[in-house]
Amino acid sequence: MSNLHLLQPPEPAPDAFIAACPSRGLIARLGEKWALLAIIALADEPVRFGALKRRLEGISAKMLGQTLRTLERDGLVERSVLATRPIAVDYRLTRRGDDLLPLARSLKRWAETHLADIEADNRRYDEREAH
Amino acid sequence: MSNLHLLQPPEPAPDAFIAACPSRGLIARLGEKWALLAIIALADEPVRFGALKRRLEGISAKMLGQTLRTLERDGLVERSVLATRPIAVDYRLTRRGDDLLPLARSLKRWAETHLADIEADNRRYDEREAH
DNA sequence: CAGTATCCGATTGGATACTG
DNA sequence: CAGTATCCAATCGGATACTG
Hints:
Chain A is mainly alpha-helical and 131 residues long. Chain A has helices at 23-31, 35-41, 49-55, 61-73, 95-129; strands spanning 47-48, 77-82, 88-93.
């Protein structure tokens, strides 16, 4: 049997620089305002909807629901309904979510540590802009 | 002179979980559809506006201009006008931009490597959804 | 070449009200 | 408690046309 096919990979590597590449959509989803923050908030243990809403200060129920559904659809978060009265639902990271976690944390940390300098630059830029 | 102030840091550490924390705005800006991709596209060398536009397949001039202005305002990108005829403008990463680069690349790579699995999950989810 | 200005449809996201 | 449905304002973002 020929080994020629080894020289011609059947699938091109995904590349977000290419417009049609769906990885761009994925990157967009991860950027979606609450996605990474939600992942970080779920880091250590299952968290209930309400608790999550409190932890992500300022999120609306609508956005939290939407964000969680997207994360579940992407296999990053698992939803389980507990048969209590009244019902409770908790969310936890999947293995894939865990895998993304360090990256999410790094980005959050990067933003937090550079924040002060960046805000200073923002002010400088805005002053120059105003002539 | 007293050292008491060392026990009471004047500024709280920024924490993106807090609604008022501006680091959340920063995270949002980095998520902004083209921001990380633009940073990656500028990784190795100064790139001209037009070249950048070609590299970020599908971006409009408007969005590219907007993205670059935001990145410049955040001190991640530096813009320099070359006195040629017709004029040329190139963009390059600042030290701070370079510092963010590995993170941006990691996120892009993560998205690209998990893409296939995630799309499979998406399809499964959508089927279940449709009953 | 490197943008900006404008128009306009699509998407985002909060507030409020409602449900099992 | 854990959402969903609806309404609406603000923003996003592409297409097109224009400028130094």
